[in-house]
Structures are given as structure tokens and as C-alpha cells.
Amino acid sequence: MLQRKLSKLNYAFMLLLLVGLFLVVPLYFTDGYAQIGEDKYNCFRAVVLSVLAVWLPFLLAWGVVSLVNSKNRKKIATTWHQISETDCFVFLFLLLNVINFTLSDDKQTLWRGEEGWYMGLAMQLILTAFYILVSRFWNKGIRSIWMLYLLMIISAGIFLLGTLNRFSIRPVEMTGASWGYISTLGNINWYCGFWTVVFPIGLYFFFTEENRKKSIIWYGYIIIGLLAGITQGSQSGILAFVGMFLMLFFLSFENKKKMERFWIVMTTFFGCCQVVRVIRNVFPDTYNLDDPTYYNIFHGRLTLTAFLISVVILIIFHLLVMRKNGPYQSFKPDKWKWLRNIIVGMTLLLLAAGFLILLIRVDHPEILSFLNGKEGTVLDDNWGSGRGSIWRETITMFHEMSFRNRIIGVGPDGYAGYMYGHYAGVGTIINRFGDLRLTNAHCEILTVLINQGLLGLFFYIGIWVSSIIRALQVIKENTEKTTFMAGIAILSMVAYFANNLVSFAQVLNIPYLFILLGIAEAYIRRSKNKLAKPENP
């Protein structure tokens, strides 16, 4: 009886923590955009520490009571094999960070992290705690689902405000407002990071929702979210769109309803691109983002042509497959998964080949010479607002590191400390970026490679790959509606890492991703019956 009451309290504290993270952190600011990054971290830390400080005694009491119970002791002793692959990778990654911290001479920096980013050991401990607590205490009750509904409501307001800001409409006055700072999140890279994790949640709700009225509500959400992604301004969002839509296409072969929803999403996306194009042409002075690459991709003839094609495909699919008495109403997309795999595989190969061509063209501009002079067609030092030079120097720095550092890294958030304190070629970075201090490689893979080394990169990739593979297995093997949580996590993970090929982890994206990782783990464990179902208070 006592154990059950303590379990209910733990569940309540988990919900309280999520309310703070989903409601307070995204909306909080003090003096507009001045120091908004610091504001977000300070708010995040205050929410986490205040809840955990009160929660910890009850959590410890629950653990003691569970151990005192003889049945639980026997169960714990015989269920070591029920620890998942994802659990192992999470714990190993944390252990590696702890070892790095212990061996470091600059423990103060590695504990808290670089100023403005704060991805040190403290954050790694918090992220691990999020994963453990959510994966063990989340349940399928309506109160849990309402946590995600709350995040969707808040994010819809944030995305709508960001889109209005892009057209110079500012319902909320913010000090330091400019094209590079929008909504209540600040810098467009931070805004885009939040969007890549949160928007896929609503997108997947629409993708799987069977109730007509709820589908209409979720469709309204994806229109707001798509407009936010199209207008936000960070070019990393282009990669997020590619990853998100490619995964949605992959999942659409489960049944014909999902396939129809996929084409609805694509038609809406291309339509939103053209709506923004029309508004820009009618009110040219209001749109405050002047980016030729963005315009050519989102607002040019490419998306107009794609819109017309997707409309035709959607109409044909509806008439032939979805309509009652349609000639192909018995069509089963799962029988065509072999074609899906070929299309997805070819797309990934083409993207990889495109990246390779950008790299080769640095020394061989005669390759695809018709691209000469066009921005972003050569992966030189200037590519991606200087990311090309950052990546080159990061790779050079990695080769110059000691064997130990190459294997286990320089420590959590230790990138800047090592670059400016030990890297012989730091003068090149200083000459290019001046007083701006690089705290990461603007590519999460390279950042982890420096901070946690080859071993840490293996563990880190293992976390997400193992979760995605296991979630896909759950979706394939289990028809329960609750497994849609696994799909949500997959979509957010793919969008996040596609975005972070040229971006970075920060307080407005990585904590939410670890929470989704925990939610996915809770459902995967339940669906596979590896552990008893979490108690439902």
C-alpha cells in the first residue's frame, strides 16, 4: 500500500516537472532578447532543481520500500536482463562523461559547461535523470497524454508568434527585436532547434489520428508548424524537413490511411510555401528575411511544381484507393515496402553523393561547372556561414589530440576550452570569428567527437539508433494505438539529428528529446512485456 502511494507521488512529481518544462521554460524571458539564452537556462535550472529538491526524498523512500519488499528484492535480482540496449547506451555515455570530468583539470567548466550553452556534466546528469524517471514513471493514462497536449498548445502559440514576427508583426514587444530573433525563443537557431523536436509530435498526432474532429484540430496545428518551419530562417531547418518527411514517407507504408495522410502533409507543406510566396509579393516590405537560398528552395517554382504534382497524386489516391467502391480500395501499402526501401535508400545515397560533390568541388570546380558562382555549391571555408572552416579546424584538432582524448574526448562541453587552450591552429579561428567564442563545432557529430571521443560517439549514436530500431519493431509487431508514442519519438529524433548535422544541442531542444526518448522507452518496454506495466495512478 505504501509503495503504491509513493508511486503515485512520483508520477505526480513527474507531471509537475513536465508542466514546468513544457509551459514555463519556452515562454519565460526577462528583458526581451537581451540575454535570452541565459534566461532560458536559468529558468530551466530553477524548474528542474526546485522540483527535484522536493521530489528526491519521496523518490528515495519509494526505492527503499521497494527494496525492503522481499518480492521486489527477488524480482530485482532476477531481472537484470530486462535492462534495454538503450538503457545501457545511456548509462555508458554518462559514465564516460563522469570519467572525463574526473580526469580533467578544469572541473568548474566541465561541470557547468561553457557560458551560454551549459552542456557540462550537470546537464548530462539531468538528461539521464529525465530519461530514467520518464521511462519508469510514464503511463498511458489521459493525464500523461495531456502533458503532450499542453506542449502542443504552447508550441502552437510560439510558432504563430514566430511567423508573425517574420512578417514584422510583433504582438509581444521584445527588446532587441531583429530578423535573427523571433518569438519567445530568441535566436533563430535556438528557435529551429525547439521546432525540430516539438513540431514532429503534432505532425505524428495528425498522421495517426482516426477521429475526424481531432484530425481537423491537428491539421490546424501542422499548418501553423509548417509555416513556422518555412519562415524561421535557419537553413538547418531544410535538413530537418528532409529527414522528417523521409521518415514520414517510410512510416506511411503501414496502411493506406497513413499513406493518404502523408500526401495531405506534403500537399499542405508545398501549399504553405506558396502562400508565404504570395504574401511576400503582396507585402514585400513586411517580410524581414532576405535569404536567396531560402527563397529558391521554399518560395520559388520548385515548390509550386511540387504542389501541383502532390495535389494530383492526392486526388488520384483518394479516388482510386480511399473512396468507397474505388477500383483499388483493397490496396495494401505494406505489400510494397520493398519499393519504399528502394526509394528511401536511393534518396539517402543521392544526399550523400550531393554532400560528397560539394566537398570535391573545393579542389575541382570544373565538376558541375554550371553551379559556379551559386551560393552553397562548394563546401569551402565560407560554406554555411563559416561552418566549412569550423569543420575543417575541428577535424584537424581531432587528429592533433592525444590518443586518450581521441578515444574518450576532452570532457562534456570541453570543446571551447580545448580549442582555445591547446589547439595550435586556434589563430585561424580567432582571425575568422574574432571575439566570438566557438563553443561547439556546429555539427553535433563533430562536437561529440571532440567532447566524448570515438567511444563516446559510439555510445551516443547507440542511444538513438537502438531506440529508433526498437520503436520501429514495436510499430511493426504491435497494433495497439498506444504505440504511436514510439512513432512520435522516431520522428522527433530523425528531425533533430538531421537539423543538428549543421547545428547544436542546447537547452531548448536536447532536454525535450531525452524526455521523448524516455516516453518511447516506457511504451517499448510495455509493448514488449519486458517489464510489468507501470502502475497507473
What does this structure look like?
This protein is mainly alpha-helical and 537 residues long. 71% of the residues lie in helices and 1% in strands. It contains 21 helices and two strands. A two-stranded antiparallel ribbon has the order 1-2. A hairpin with a 3-residue loop joins strand 1 and strand 2. Helix 4 packs antiparallel against helix 19. The two termini are 12 Å apart.
The tally of helices reads: 21
Strand order of the largest sheet: 1-2
Q: Assign a percent range to the helix content.
A: over 70%
The biggest beta sheet reads: 2 strands, antiparallel
Order of helices and strands: HHHHHHHEEHHHHHHHHHHHHHH
Low-confidence stretches: 530-537
List the helices and strands and how they pair.
Elements: H1 2-27, H2 36-68, H3 70-78, H4 85-103, H5 107-112, H6 121-137, H7 142-166, E1 181-182, E2 186-187, H8 188-208, H9 212-231, H10 236-251, H11 256-282, H12 292-298, H13 301-322, H14 337-360, H15 383-400, H16 403-408, H17 415-422, H18 426-433, H19 444-477, H20 484-499, H21 510-528
Antiparallel strand pairs: 1-2
Helix pairs in contact: 1-2, 1-7, 4-6, 4-19, 6-21, 7-8, 7-9, 8-9, 8-10, 8-11, 8-20, 9-11, 10-11, 10-20, 11-13, 15-19, 19-20, 19-21, 20-21
